[in-house]
Queue: 3 jobs
Job 1
Amino acid sequence: MNAGIDFAVIGGTGLYQLAELEGVQSHRIETPYGSPSAPLRVGGFGPHRIAFLARHGEGHAMPPHRINYRANLWALQSIGATRIVAVNSVGGITPDWGPRVIGLPDQLIDYTHGRTLSLWDGEGEPLHVDFGEPYTPALRHALLEAAKASGVAVVDGGCYGATQGPRLETRAEIERLRRDGCDLVGMTGMPEAALARELGLDYACLAIVANWAAGRAPSAETITLDEVLANMAAAITPLPGLLRALRLPPA
Ligand code: HPA
């Protein structure tokens, strides 16, 4: 199927639907890897036709280590999406990445374990895809231009540390991530980015900072879910405008 999709958005914590989608068609897709997290919602979005998928399910039922990343990406590709804008809620580690910041990381380090991280299932040749630039530079660039055009401040570049969750990290773990060069930390960045590369999809991450990571806040407060959700709700407000301003060459 090719539904004429300009790009797909995978929404993370706090972004379970795009209210602005028009003329929505829902696609429940079964994949060789099982079911995606939710039906794919396809519709008009400003000048675009896009597909939206709620990564955690539409009621945030699925924790990061239980998400069927392979089914999600395969399903999006099966309806003709070739470019994925992944929206991920993250914790901020370095000073530029405070709560409510939006940023476009350009590197990542994978600390997850026990997740199915390849489409390769033991048959045929394993896929050793190039992953030196984990986020597609042209798509990152287009998102930066869209941010400029829509007047949304974004941080350009940074290293995403992908942790296992679902618990938050210890202060020592965050200190280690910082020493490793991570600027932000999240639980859903991998294996999604690597699977997108295996499938030949363009992929970029729009990271939304929900909280300071453990031990990085100016005061020694614990991180509460209420704080995370309030920051996410505030930070995602400009996202629809930014996405509408995205200009991409024909897929
Ligand atoms: N750590 C990991 N993932 C996250 C965080 C965090 O502090 N905040 C939002 N997602």
Job 2
Amino acid sequence: MRTDALLSRFGYCSRREVAQWLKRGRVIRNGVPVKSPNEKVEPEDVLIDGEPVEFPHGLYVALNKPLGCTCSHKEEGELVYDLLPEQWLRRNPAVNTVGRLDKETSGLLLLTDDGAFEHAQTSPKRHVPKVYAFTTECPVPPEAVAQFASGEFMLQGERTPCLPAELELTGDCEGRLTLHEGRYHQVRRMLAAVGAPVLTLQRIEIGPLKLADLHLEPGEWVAIDPAIFAR
Ligand code: URA
């Protein structure tokens, strides 16, 4: 790849700034400064400001999303992207969330610049299980366990029933719900429909990835190996 393409692909600088970067000797290949923007380089062979290229084969991270921030590039208020290093936000292709969590939902959120990975994870055909821990304002009726598992549970305004979902009650007003699809506000709508509006909601698992194993404080992220999602 051309040196100017590499620097802009991985968010170091704009193509306009490349000449300046090279003049200052910030890009070194095999111990020798790269001089020309059109010089071809492999990401593995260069150091930029003395460091290897960050995530040269795609960026995949798990974030512990805090409450109150939005999974959007353009809305007002705090955004999940504000929690990431600025350089990541200049990568092209852009870094995006894999699906979304509501502003008032916390927990496990994946981000990537790999469109194919994002698509595969969110594809309705894949049914990647996602586990949510919730508390509710009122007790959840025990019958909800069978209703949610039936594959016949209809949400208002939807044309097809929800896929079977596993509800585990750990107290009158708390539990876990495992979904195999991702409809708009699905957990909140399912629990509200059985008379138990959600008080707090946290995503604790996506497929094989468990938030508890990652030891992330709210707002912290860690790089993950996308191969764990391969089947
Ligand atoms: N279901 C919801 O209601 N909200 C989320 O953020 C995720 C699933």
Job 3
Amino acid sequence: MNRSHENEHLGFSDTPVLPDSGYTVHDGTRPQPKVVTPGSDGSPPADATVLFDGTSLESWEPVRENETGRWKILEDGSMEVVPSEGDIQTRKSFGDIQLHLEFRCPVKIKGNGQGRGNSGVFLMGRYEIQVLDNFQNPTYSDGTVGAIYGQTPPLANAVRQPGEWNLYEIFWEAPVFENGERIKAAKVTAILNGIVVQHATELQGPTINKALPPEEPQESTGPLRLQDHGDLVRFRNIWVRRLGQRDELF
Ligand code: MG
């Protein structure tokens, strides 16, 4: 407990003690929430780590050695997948985060099912939240936009029409390992275009295609990775904030 008695006058000390924190109900000495200035007109909040603002890819690097990761920066302030240049990932690693990201699937419809507007957001480099043009384009449920790919379908298909911008707000809790064992699974809540698509969903393990999740590396941080699935998907306005108390995982 970190009591700051200068603020005692803000609250009460003759109230019952909350069992989880040791503070009293309405305790004036309980630390004040930090002040964070929100963004306006879609700009990031003051304490965000901006990963892409439309000007440069300097926060990003290729994932695989034989690929360049040279995606295109477009005049509309977005970056676009360049097929076969490969996935890209942030140079920094993150644990528990709030992630803001916008994506747009190609206006020109090409392919169907998993072959239309496919990309993905990989938390910690290995857990994929699907990006796909599912507008009047069904596919297997656990591969639908908003799915934890191969594990958990979204609660709704909330994608917009091809060519329109979609907004993801993702709240990610890293897995926790202790003495060689996972004591807490990774957990995610995701909101797509204002609609909850994952609600405190626990992950079974890392993402893989057509198989059960493989063994999970015992890591609680990793880079944010975006997928090159061969489609001209665009991303813009990408930023993260620390989520919760586990600041050391940022
Ligand atoms: Mg994908």
